[in-house]
Amino acid sequence: MLLAANIPIHTISSRVKTKSSAVTKGTRQGARLAGIEGLHDLLGLRIITYFADQVDLVGLEIEEHFAVDETYSVDKRTLLDPDRFGYLSLHYVVSLNSARIQLPEYARYAGLKFEIQIRSILQHTWAEIEHDLGYKSPDAIPQPLRRRFSRLAGLLELADEEFKSIRNAAIKYAEDVTKRIQGGGDAEINQESIMAFVQEDSAMNDLDTSISTQYGAPLESITPRFAGARAQELIRFGYKTLGDVREALEQHSAAVSTVAVDWLNLPDTSGERGDCERFASFSGGIGLFYLYLYRVASRDGSFGLVRDELSPATSEDDQVFLDMCARAARRFT
């Protein structure tokens, strides 16, 4: 549901109320409960979003896909006065909607109600720490500590807003740099500009396609993590702008493509690993990785120096690259 709506979620957790807890609550509230059906939180879900404004987006999905009990559902974010502090979250009591309970596998859950809490990761941080300190309500906090709690709550709320603002600014920057690249303009090298460059630049696309076609593996969409790694390498080599990268592609694309494919098909003559495992696919921007290795090797005269620059390996991917460098050092030097 949330994946289909393209809403990023940090975590979704669940808990089932223990028998003793249910009996205690039922006894305490017995006058207001009509059997077990009156316990609306026997099952509870907690959805943690990255940003505060995603809480409302999740809420809209809940309202669309479940039957919401308006009597017991509450937006606790609206309950605090501006000068009070506490955690803010959106609470729903829901049951399966009529369309869902028509399905045989869900029919036995008809009428069963459960609770869903939605909050941002910073709202969750506040709630968890407050709970760990043992304070059940603001009135329980000693007077000397209340002002400090208030300041902290305000800081977390400001942080939530600032993270949201940074996210929006990053989206706007990506849109602007994409338009600039589409118009043939330049930009500094960073994760966002590399993402746009790989998606929009024709010379970049030609190099990726050449490597992909010759090796026989399809291209996938570039990911932010892959783009960030390529940006780091290009900056480390000395490139500052996408104009530098364009110039390098104009001069070296053919050689880079040839070396990349030779390297990818290179057997391990040491006998330690056998033939190099074939890749099922490549990320868009793969040509930038081989451009970087080719340029370092050309500058320093040895693929072995590329190996030395990457050492020591800090991840499984780095180790694969080190092995490839070792084979390339034997093949091309």
Note down, in words, how this protein is organized.
It is a single chain. The protein folds into 2 domains: 9-162, 2-Layer Sandwich (Beta Polymerase, domain 2); 185-332, no CATH class. Helix content is 54%, strand content 11%. It has 12 helices and 8 strands. It has helices spanning 19-28, 53-65, 98-101, 121-133, 143-182, 191-200, 202-215, 224-237, 242-264, 286-300, 303-310, 316-332; strands at residues 9-16, 43-49, 66-68, 74-75, 90-96, 114-120, 219-220, 282-283. Helix 6 crosses helix 8 (224-237) and helix 10 packs across helix 11 (303-310). It starts with 8 loop residues before the first strand and ends with a helix.
Strand content: 5-15%
CATH domain class name of the largest domain: Alpha Beta
CATH architecture of the largest domain: 2-Layer Sandwich
Helix content: 40-55%
Radius of gyration: 28 Å
Mean pLDDT: 80
Instruction: Report, as a whole number of angstroms, the end-to-end distance.
Output: 54 Å
Number of domains: 2
Outline the fold blueprint.
Layout: E1 9-16, H1 19-28, E2 43-49, H2 53-65, E3 66-68, E4 74-75, E5 90-96, H3 98-101, E6 114-120, H4 121-133, H5 143-182, H6 191-200, H7 202-215, E7 219-220, H8 224-237, H9 242-264, E8 282-283, H10 286-300, H11 303-310, H12 316-332
Parallel strand pairs: 2-6, 7-8
Antiparallel strand pairs: 1-2, 3-5, 4-5, 5-6
Structure described in brief:
The chain is an alpha/beta fold and 333 residues long. It has two domains: 9-162, Beta Polymerase, domain 2, CATH 3.30.460.10; 185-332, no CATH class.
